[in-house]
Amino acid sequence: MKINVLKSRALLFILYIGMALILGTFFVYSSLNAMEYTFSSAQIDRMFQKHVMTIGISAVLGIFAFLFSSFVTRGKHLMNALFLFFVALLVLALTQTPINGTRRWITIAGFQLQPSEFMKLYLPLYLSWYFYKIKEKKNTFLYGIVIPMAITILTVGLIFLEPDLSTSLLIFFLALLTIYINGVRNIHFYLTIFLLLVIGVLIFLNTDILHGYQQERIEKFKNKEENYQLQQSLDAISNGGFFGSGTFIGEEKYTVPYSYSDFIIAVIGEEWGKFGIIMIITLYFLISRELILMSYHIKNQAAKSFMVVFAFWIFIQSFVNVGVSVGLLPTTGITLPLMSYGNSSLLITIVSIGYIMGMVFYEIIRNNPEKQNETQTNLEKVEKIDEV
C-alpha cells in the first residue's frame, strides 16, 4: 500500500510540474511579445527560442540526474567536486563586466548563466549529502554546526558581493533549514541562530551594507506611488479583473518592465485575472505539498532532506515573486519558479526535479520484492565503481 501511495504522489507531482512548465511557456511567450517597445522582434524570437531550448537541455540533464541520483548520494568525491565547481563559477562571475551594476552572470555559448541560481538548490543538496555522510557526528558542534555554517557563509558571502542581497538571504535561509531538519542538536542550532541575529544587528547598525540600488528599492517600497514598475504591474492586474482579459490579450502588460521575468505575475493577472493568480499560487502549494508527502516515504535521509527544502524553496520563492508584483514586498529580482524567463533558474530546478524523481523511483523498486535483488546488485556495482 505504501508503494502505491508513493507512486500516486509521484504521478501527481509530475503532472503539476508539467502544468507549470506548459503554463510558463505560454506566459513567457506572451510577456516577451509584450516587450515589443524594448526589444526588436528578432530579439524576442531569439529569447523565446532560448527559453524553449533551455527546457529541452534541462530535461536531458534532468534525465541524467534521474539515472544517477542514487550514485550521487553514495559517491565520495562527486559532490565535493561539484561544490568546488559552483564556487569557482561564483568567483568567476565576480570578475565579469557589471550588468545593471551587478556581476551575477557568466556568458557561455550565447547563454547567460547565473551561478547563484545553481546554489539556491545545490547548497541544500550538498549539505543534505554532507549530513548523510557524517551520520552521528552531526551531534557534535564542530561537524553539526561549524563546518556546515562555514560552507554556507562562503557561498552566501560570494553571492552577497555580486551584489545580490535577496538571493543571498534566501540561500542562507534554505541552508539553515537544511541544517535544522537534519537533526543537529537543538541547543547548538538555537545558540547559533541567536549569535547570528546579534552579529547581524550589530553589522546593520554600524555599517552601510546596502548598495544604492537596494536602498532605492526600499524607498520605492515605502512610496509605492513613485514605483513605476509596481504601478504598471498593479494596473495590469487591475485591468484583468477577476477572470482576466484572455490569453495573449491585454494592454497594460506592454508597459510593465521585465514582465517576462520578475513581474510575470502582471501578465498572468491581466490575461487570466485574479482567478489565474490564485490558481498559480494553488499550483505551487500542491507541488510543495506532494514533495512533503513523498518525503515521508523516502528512507534515504539526504533525499528526504532535500525534498523538504525544495518544497519550501518552491513555495517561498513563488510567494516572494507574487508579493513583489502586488506590492506586499520590495522588489527583489526573484523569479517565479518554472514559469519566469531565466535559463539558470529553469535548468537547476528541472535537474533537481530529476534527482528527486530518481530517488523516488529507487525507493519504489527497492521496496518491490520482485526487483529487490536486481536493485541490490545494481547498487553494489555502483559502489564498486565509486571505490575504484
TrEMBL record:
**Which chain positions lie within coiled-coil regions?**
none
Q: Which InterPro entries match?
A: FtsW/RodA
The UniProt entry lists membrane topology as: Multi-pass membrane protein
Keywords, alphabetical: Cell cycle, Cell division, Cell shape, Glycosyltransferase, Membrane, Peptidoglycan synthesis, Transferase, Transmembrane, Transmembrane helix
The highest taxon in the source lineage is Bacteria
Spell out the Pfam families in the cross-references. FTSW_RODA_SPOVE (PF01098)
Q: Is the keyword Cell cycle in the record? A: yes
EC number(s) per entry? 2.4.99.28
Subcellular localization:
Membrane
Q: Which GO terms describe its molecular function?
A: lipid-linked peptidoglycan transporter activity; peptidoglycan glycosyltransferase activity
Question: Which reaction is recorded as catalysed by this protein?
Answer: [GlcNAc-(1->4)-Mur2Ac(oyl-L-Ala-gamma-D-Glu-L-Lys-D-Ala-D-Ala)](n)-di-trans,octa-cis-undecaprenyl diphosphate + beta-D-GlcNAc-(1->4)-Mur2Ac(oyl-L-Ala-gamma-D-Glu-L-Lys-D-Ala-D-Ala)-di-trans,octa-cis-undecaprenyl diphosphate = [GlcNAc-(1->4)-Mur2Ac(oyl-L-Ala-gamma-D-Glu-L-Lys-D-Ala-D-Ala)](n+1)-di-trans,octa-cis-undecaprenyl diphosphate + di-trans,octa-cis-undecaprenyl diphosphate + H(+)
Q: Which GO terms describe its cellular component?
A: cell division site; plasma membrane
User: What's its top-level EC category?
Assistant: transferase
Q: Which family does it belong to?
A: Belongs to the SEDS family. FtsW subfamily.
Question: What PANTHER family is this protein classified in?
Answer: CELL CYCLE PROTEIN, PEPTIDOGLYCAN GLYCOSYLTRANSFERASE FTSW-RELATED
Could you identify this protein by its name?
Probable peptidoglycan glycosyltransferase FtsW
Upper taxonomic lineage? Bacteria, Thermotogati, Thermotogota, Thermotogae, Petrotogales
